[in-house]
Amino acid sequence: LQRARELLSAPTSETTVIGTALACGYSNASHFARHYFEAFGERPSQTLARHS
Fold it and tell me: 0.90 cut: is pTM over it?
């Protein structure tokens, strides 16, 4: 999940939450989002939006 946060915090024009989840070994975006929220207190989309 730390790697996912790094990717979402330094996005390229092609960065997506789903792509990040897949790149980090998650095949289910809902599970990824839930685990991410539990770890960091925000949704992956919020991290991405803050850094876009």
Answer: yes
Q: What are phi and psi of 5, to 5 degrees?
A: -65, -40
Distance from C-alpha of 46 to C-alpha of 30, rounded to nearest angstrom: 15
26-49 pLDDT, tens per residue?
999 999 999 999 999 999 999 999
Distance separating alpha carbons of residues 24 and 20, to the nearest angstrom: 6
- Please state the length of the chain: 52
Q: What CATH number is attached to the domain comprising 14?
A: 1.10.10.60
Cα–Cα distance, 37 to 13 (Å, whole number): 23
Helix locations, 1-52, DSSP H = 2-9, 17-23, 29-40, 44-51
